[in-house]
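Service request form, structural biology core

Requester: graduate student, group of Dr. S.
Request type: structure prediction, single chain
Budget code: on file
Notes: please return the result as structure tokens.

Sequence provided:
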Amino acid sequence: MHHSLLALITGAAGYGKTTLLAQWRQDRLKAGAEVAWVSLAADDKGYSAFCTTFLEGVRRLGIDIDINLQREDNTLSAIDGTVAIIVNAAAMLNKELYLMVDDYHHVEAPHAHKLIQKLLEQSPGNLHLVLASRVSPPLSLSRLRMMDQVVEIESAQLPFDLAETRTFVEENLGSDKINADELSLIHDLTSGWPSCLQLIVIMLKNRSDTRAILDDLVWRSNDLQTYLSEEVVAHLPAALVEVAETLSLFRRFNASMAITVTGNPEAGELLQRMEDENLLIYRVDSDDRVIWYRFHPLFGEFLSTRLQRRNHDVRPLHRQAAQWFAEHNCLTEAVRHASLGDDTEFAIQVIEQTTPATWSLDYLAPTLRLLERLPEDVLFRHQRLLFLASLTVSLTSRPGRAKAWLNRLQASNLDAHPELASGLPLIHAAVAIQEDDSELTIRLLEPVRDAPMDNPFLRYVLLAALTVAYATAGRYTDARRLFDIHPVAAEDRSNDMALVAESARLTTYLLAGDIVEAESLASELLERSTREGGQRSICANLCASLLADAFYELDRIDDARELIANRFGLLHSSVPDVIVRTNLSRSRLDLLQKGADAALSFLRQQIAHLRSLGQVRPVAHLLGEQIRVCLLKGQRSHAVELLQALEALAREHGTALGGRAELPAIAALARARVLVKEDSHAALEALDTVKDYAERFHRGRLGVLVDLLSAGVLEDLKQPDQALLRTHRAAEAAQRLGLARTLLDEGALSEKLLGALASTGLHDPLRQYVDDLIEKLTGPCSASLATPRSRRPAPPGQQALLTPREREILSLVAQAMSSKRIAHTLDITLETVKWNLRNIFAKLGVSSRYDAMVQARNQNLID
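Core staff response, request fulfilled:
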């Protein structure tokens, strides 16, 4: 397979396709390859759903692709574009890539097959696709077969041989529990079909007299599993079977739910027995302390079929489950089973009658998905439901739908619901934040800022929205004073919306450029929000965005990358400030660690996506960043074209207030960069425009950057004294704020200007600060455009600089731990482990885990 583009595994259910893939995956990981696993389900038969799942696997290989953008367009040109992105990105990765797709038989959309076909036709040699399917997919493989580029494994190759059957049976029953004749008979009967072997073992465990009738099992192979399932179930206690059949309706279940739905007070003990006896029941990973289970899909399907034969109407069971899930705050499952039980009114009741005091972001997120499934006429008949829907959507990046629902809500009579009427300004303000209109947000919320509000969730929505608006307007003192006037109550410190409001306050420190304070406060809030809501909670994501920006500015590159890894929502769908901050951090990390081409690819993709969402200011910022990277690559003509697009955008919104008032400054900064070598006076004039914006809105980092760039222009204009003055001012402000990358990212210009400044005889602490920057710009570990930071090994004889996290991971590698186990041991994501390993390989100049371990020991980096 190492030399082929495709491995195709076809076989009926229970033939071990998934197990084979899992073993193959482990082998490839040990060999140092990058492997991603995708499991398809019946819900993935359509093109959009297939793309969501398939492209997420592509992304886990290290290929940046916008899933939301690619999945929505199934035209041939869009498919070609998607394939081109994957192929080009894969070709740039210097390692073998394996994408394993399990249960491909669920795919029905012709365009999904076209996508796979084109990917195979254009795939680079290092990208290997592995498909497991119950049927042969409609792909044209003749050319691949002629070129020996496909490995095909069919049902005839999958079954166990006699030796494997013996091993399996003896490991499960013991070597002295079955004789050679019985083993041979079992093998002949099953033809080595793994799932049937498993069922026979279960049967033999429960009925020792089954051996006497083994020679009577002369059924056709397609009847065998049904018979064995009947045998397994037939000799189990009736109460256990009844519980199992009832629970087969549910995707997951626990002891408490089993007791309620089945009406059997011993259902919990019966679940434990099923687990102890390996009756095709598995524990499901869960964030809470309750043990959840699910059945093996085939066994669960068999049980549910028996249940429906015995009881034609299973809707009452779904309704009971809906009641239990609702009582235990499992909103998604409550509404799902209410719908399956044809109890739409209860589904609505679950959402609508939840008390406002219990509202949270965790509650609203699944609510949004459920609301979108309801017909709008049903939604419009329930005012409280419509209010909640409008509020939920207004907090996302879909202001258009929020305004439509809000208009419908306002047109209704809210006299009977004064609490809803009082909340309308909040929804208007949330929409305004999404549309980057901070001035309107302030006008809407200041009049109600001090009004009493019993609903804590809405109170913190107001606090967060007004804080964001003040920060965008540069009114940092007003934003921070809000928390003096309306402090977060002690009992609300774990409230997720209160945490979001606190994260908004920290934005003021970042925008002001006070990086040291921002890093300290954001670190504490990230720890608290992760502890309260989990690593992927909304507040944890927002704090990660803040802290990644701070870490990047402090030149803690690996820490910044680790923080925003796999937090794709921050890149695509948040408020404009968060989108800007996270996308710029990501593109600059790509520039340092992967190179200019990777950064430009990311920027192009994000600009297209954000344009489709109408995110004007984020698009402008990314265009400005794209211009900077193009100039670094020497692509001046392309930079000029991009500048024209950026200036057109700035002119279109030239009179805009709020956040979009920044657009002229963004365009002016890009114009100054383009003109700096051909028209110094025009460049200086453009920088004066940026300086005016930075001073009016108190943007500290931007002010430092403008002074630095202006010093370079003044140097070109033969005004060394003025250039030195600007450099000194920039360095003083940067040292006070704790900045690093703002100056380091200017590379040769900073090296030149800071070198001249250092020769003037500075006093500490400014002298030490400038010397440290010069060392970073000129030292052996300095990053350059031609040599991305993460790919530069230490010079011969010099010890590699590994972060504490990299040393920790490498020490576990030396203990022969898999990446997955390392992730579990350190409580980090698998992608974080992989990212750190890539950095380790690059720093040590090796390409495998074993070589990294040897090199690290030689350098005394690990014991």
